[in-house]
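Cross-check.
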Amino acid sequence: MSEYLILASASPRRRELLERMGWDFKTIPSGIDEEFLEGESPRRHVLRLSREKTVIVSRENPDAWVLGADTEVIIDDEVLGKPETPEEARAMLKKLSGRMHRVITGFSIAKESTGVNIDNIIESQVFFKEISDDEMEWYIKTGEPYDKAGGYAVQGRGAVFVKEIRGSYTNVIGLPLCEVVSALKSVGAVSLQ
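Predicted model, tokenized:
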């Protein structure tokens, strides 16, 4: 499978995606502050956070391969965070309804003892259908919008709103598996045997 691998993230969705690969790995969240810096673009933000997560955990585990990632949902240059109330979820879903939005993920891979550092950013475009009022209220009542960037889960009931995805589907979940696995293989962190 792999050498010693750590996912530097508290995201259950990232953990589930890596578990699908059948690999043994540890999850060690970095605990960093994920607020935007003044004037920071979403692309710079996701890359900075993925690097910081990876560096912090890698320093504490220098012989492990460490994978960090950060994902943002963007529409009209506005970053949509995680709604905490029905009103916030409703506002987000109304913005997404009938439109295209972008999902960007920065990911970083490092091994402190070897000095290896890899960074990448993956972007997907997601096209939503027009969401009717009854669909919106039904979805909010499911509780699924909470703790999800953009207020929906493409791998859950939120899939009913998605007409089309251009780019990585797993990126929309939170980790672009195709690109992450290729990067991990390229440095010898994992094999598919």
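Strands lie at 5-7, 26-27, 65-75, 78-80, 100-111, 116-128, 162-166. The helical segments are 12-19, 42-60, 86-96, 133-142, 169-173, 177-186. Passed to J.P. for a second look.
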